[in-house]
Amino acid sequence: MAAEPPPVRFGILGCANIARKVSRAMILSPNSTIVAIGSRSLEKAANFAKNNGFPVSAKAYGSYDAVLEDPNVDAVYIPLPTSLHLQWAVAAAKKKKHILLEKPVALNFKELDLILKACESNGVQFMDATMWMHHPRTPKMKEFLSDSHSFGQLKTVHSIFSYNSGDDFRKNDIRVKPDLDALGALGDTGWYSIRAILWAADYEMPKTVTALPDAEFNEAGVILSCAASLRWDDGKRATFYCSFLTNLTMDIGVLGSNGYLRVHDFVIPFQENVGPFYVTANTKFAELSIGIEPAPTEHKIYTDLPQEALMVKEFSGLVSGIKEHGSGTEKKWPTISRKTQILVDAVKASIEKGFEPIEVVF
């Protein structure tokens, strides 16, 4: 029997709150480990490692550069503010470190193209940290959408991701600071809904994107809520709403000519070990229109590992293939990231141009 490849050795750039969750995933994943963390403060990095159960051998550094210089680091996870992604992702790629990058991956697709070019020229794997893509529920839902009898032809998608974290968040969080994360709710919650629409449409890009009127902003001009409509040449339509101002909601609704799929917790499952979704197929009104038949069915997809650990596991498997077997990088993930970023940019452009339709160029 062939020996298992050694675990992929991660370094983490920064001590963002989301890094607590992803570092836990690195510990839970069977093919990864944490060997380093860097912060602008050595004390902060050391405390983060101690408080989050890092291996005792993990090194703490007082700079991001030190992590990239560490020869024991195979890959880096970058949860820094979006305005810093270009600088540090390119620096990591030049040091031959594979990159797991928080979303939104860049401030615009031109920045992302520079990141992807650096990854391509240095032979490093790129993946964004959109965790729900890696839950086993996701391919199961796609099986239903691909069933021509039960679902039929895709007609429309609607997605909502919103949460209300209160006044302190809206005044002080990095996601509302124009110099740190200028895309605001569009880059944070909107990223997920746009990805959901692309996923449902098999990543076929729409023809036009039109932001809907009355987007909301903070005093610094950062988006706090917005909505948009997407149109394809074949008649498909999609809409989404994203917000920092409304109750926590994480819905996808996908309507086909014969069926309908709905999931209420697509971003973060309500329970870590199970992801439910609901489908109806070939539905009719019952006699006297006092109900419907057949009734909607619920499907529960169980998992031993949380979705973020499955993300790390998949990413680490790709890195191991490159390290141990000379495999090429997987192009699917950077392509999906680029398509998502282009649509984020299009929504932003539509808002800035008075909610005019923006033709999508890919």
From TrEMBL:
Coiled coil segments of this chain: none
Pfam families: GFO_IDH_MocA, GFO_IDH_MocA_C3
Annotated ranges, domain GFO/IDH/MocA-like oxidoreductase: 147-261
Lineage: superkingdom: Eukaryota
GO molecular function list: nucleotide binding
Gfo/Idh/MocA-like oxidoreductase N-terminal domain ranges (all copies): 8-127
Record-stated family: Belongs to the Gfo/Idh/MocA family.
Protein name (database record): Uncharacterized oxidoreductase At4g09670-like
Biological source species: Olea europaea subsp. europaea
